[in-house]
Amino acid sequence: MSSQRVTIVDLAGEIDIRTASEAQAKVSSALTAETPEVLMLDLTQVSFLDSVGIGFLVGLNQQAQDVGVALRLRNLQPQVHRVLAATGLVGVLQIEQ
Question: Which domains does the chain have, with CATH numbers?
Answer without folding.
Answer: 6-96 (3.30.750.24)
